[in-house]
Design a protein that fits this description.
This protein has 109 residues and is mainly beta. It contains one helix and five strands; from the N terminus they run αβββββ. It has a five-stranded mixed barrel.
Length: 109
Amino acid sequence: MSIFVASALLLSAPADHHDHHGHHGDHHQTESQVSSTVAADVRAVDAENRAAVVRHDALTELGMGAMMMRFSVADNVDFDLFQPGAALTITVVSGDEGYEIIAAEARDS
């Protein structure tokens, strides 16, 4: 029940990392961006804001432990991969606008 409530609260929050309406910027990683690639499980999806709540392994390169949190998903990433329960490998960057998933692929559960 608490995971459901937490997910509902996270999804009801405004997209805090990216305003995707009318935004067509380049989401490719630059040399100055640090990234981390880890296993993650999708818990909830907010298609309207192109965001997802995922449980992820430690993002060591970004100094973040394993946890469940909301991420924006870059425009060039296949958002159809983000279905509740999906097991993914994601690449996350930390930029001026927060944490963003810049790559994702399905993984064997």
